[in-house]
Amino acid sequence: CHLANINLRELKGSAFVPPPTLPLRPPCDRLPCHKSSVCSRSYFVVVMVFFHVYIINVLALLFYVHYSSGQEDASSSSDAPTGGGQPQRSEARRPSPSKPDFVRDVSLTRIEGIRVGHVQKVSLVPGRVHEMKTLSLKPLLFEIPGFLSEDECRVVMQLAQLKGLMESQLMVQEGQEELAKELDLSPEEIFNLLDINQDGQLQLHEILTHSRVRDGIWLTPENLREIYDGLKADKDGDGKKLCRVKRSQLVRNSRHTWLYQGKGAHRVLQEIKERVTRLTRLPAALVDLSEPLQVVRYEEGGHYHAHHDSGPVYPETACTHTRLAANTSTPFETSCRYITVLFYLNSVDGGGETAFPVADNRTYDEETVPLSSSLNCDKSNLRVKPTKGMAVFWYNYLSDGRGWVGEQDEYALHGGCVVTRGTKWVANKWINVDPDYQRQARYQQLVSQLPDDENDDDLPSNADVQNPSIHQDL
Q1: Residue 186 sits in the same domain as residue 333
Q2: 232-289: pLDDT as tens digits
Q3: What pLDDT score was predicted for residue 257?
Q4: CB-based contact 149:388 (threshold 8 Å)
Q5: Are residues 426 and 346 part of one domain?
Q6: What is the mean pLDDT of the chain?
Q7: What is the CB-side half-sphere exposure of residue 220 using CA atoms within 13 A?
Q8: What are the names of the required cofactors (predicted)?
Q9: Which H helix or E strand runs over 131?
Q10: Orientation of helix 150-163 relative to helix 267-280, angle to 10°
Q11: Which residues pair with 394 in a beta bridge?
């Protein structure tokens, strides 16, 4: 207003139209602005305080969770037992230092069968390719013609004859009393073993309970009924008999021997072992530590009832080859034969086929299986005719899905049909593998620690090596 009065004085007397003036806000109108700024600042401070408190709470919660989980991990990894009778955590404890936990660094190669009739090319000897044909998928079974040469078959049979063939004891015909002398059981002891209820009499059902014998050998009720009838045990037909058992009426009609294939063995035997290693594609150490070569001769009438080469392995069962390394006492043991390689050393004039009663069956039923292959060969799903030099091999166990031995393959049931004419010569090479990887690894470790001189005790002297002969090779 003061400025306006001055301007009016200066312009007095002249024509002047004052410009429109903006209304001035009174001082009281500025106060609400100051009050609003103060309120906004206070609101911002309060919000920030609450935000920082929230962040601090979140961080505290995360720290608490992390600390609590750390305490649980520490308590679970502790070896001290929990107090107050509380059950311990279910996690498996680490084995003690006395039983090292071997890392599974070996995987067993398993050949694929593809389909029945499929033929694969395999290189087993330098300069020659063999054909391997799939015969069945259950069990996984293959056939390799010409695996052995004619000369190799002859040498193996000659070495077996030189070594000496022992009688295989399972069941024998009347008139073979001398063979029965090899048994250490008296007639009374045999009777007491069969007389389950110990009533002093031998009933038919008591004999039938022994249809399952050692090493997976099976006898059917029909077989055992023939034994019972052959004993002339039930003259009055009432199913009972007093003890009149002869030792000569037990054992089996075949002869066998074992041929060592390690250092110092005959060149042919070592070459066969190396060929088996290439065929199965297994580590050489497994083949080297397996059973020796078994050679078997069946005369006319000879047979082998249906059986499994290896039995199932349960927690209370130990494998024969690793039993000592396991260092545990078990009531049962079995021959853990992962693979069977069967060689035909001659062509049989009549009979003698290897029968697989349930090969590629849709199901396996013990009640309907023709276990007596010598009497039911024509009922078997698959029969392999013995041909000189040919080899067949199959897996007695399934895979565990992780490169090791799994459960027993029940479809590997097999037997030898009756030789109706001539003589039958075969050889068996079994590859022993314990389904328990730790026991197998411990066994191989113990064997590797043996001094070389302990493994060479049976080797010929230097003088003999310089003058090799078939006797010295044995």
Answers
A1: no
A2: 555 555 555 444 443 333 334 688 999 999 988 999 999 999 999 999 999 999 999 9
A3: 94
A4: no
A5: yes
A6: 74
A7: 16
A8: L-ascorbate
A9: strand 128-136
A10: 120
A11: 141, 340
